[in-house]
Design goal:
349 residues; 16 helices; alpha/beta; 7-stranded parallel beta sheet; 41% helix; 16% strand
Length: 349
Amino acid sequence: MKIAIDCRMLGSGGIGTYLESLLPFFLEDFDCLLFGNQDLIMTKISLQEHQIQVADCRIKPFSLTEMFFFPKELLERINECDYYYTPYCNIPEGITIPIFSTIHDVVFLDIPSLTSRAGVLARKYFYQRGINKSKKIFTVSNFSALRIKEHLNTHHKKIIVTYNSVPQWFMEKKKKTLKKEHSILFVGNIKKHKGLHTLLKAFEILSARDHELKLVIVGNAENFRTGDDTIAASISRFPKDKILFTGRISNEEVRDYYEKSQLLIQPSLYEGFGMPPMEALYCGTNVVLSDIPVFKEIYKDFPVTYFRCEDPNDLAQKIENSLRKESPKITGNVYSFQRTYNIIKEELN
């Protein structure tokens, strides 16, 4: 059996990591046609070990070219396969074989204030188009499945929950353990649903009592300062040495910060799954996260601490209490990409 896999989002954050983690399983079981940035694909896999064809394709996802002018030669190669899989809901026009796609969340439909009205309508169009063209749709949590059904016409198609997981390399033991520093960590962006505004208010409360505690934010300072005036004003009130911005760093460096920090804080108002808490736990770092429904679903069997969403006073108290906790020791693997892949493979028919 042969499967065409859209790899154009390889290397692009969460969706890219999701795809990269699934690819080894696809390559083991199928003859594969991978299309995307050929140079990047070649750095991720070994062509000698598997039956693989690679097609270079730099056409942007969700572009007019993708929808109306996708290369005919590539379409012919795709349509010679038995199945088509994409890790997101962007689908080129002209594919005639069964399509299987993943919608990770519908945050812009649940929180329309994150973008313009035109932006909401455009996203809803692409979500619906992806559902219409797909034989089956996967998502990463029961929460996301419910929200997809709430906002979109699924035509009675089953939304299949596969869950997400920590990449295998993240769980491997390092030769050298890094010493904990008196700091808390935020991994996210300035979009309102990530809850950074709540964390900054809580950190201001804590700083009055704990002058040594530092906040480390994974990202570039300028992105946070220019992207949101409220966030920028909150950051400017702190001494320069209280908040550290890491800048753009590698996955390995992010892992080091997980390991060095005493706590990861995930103050999100909304997530489809939420990976940073799981990554932190596997690095031996305690987690304080908001009590939103998806976190209650995903982390119900993990040693995490919840705070009342958007309540900085409660967050400050939970951080203070959690700073005294011993490092978590995670045994077993509640989620894994092997299980995720097995679910997807079972549905390919």
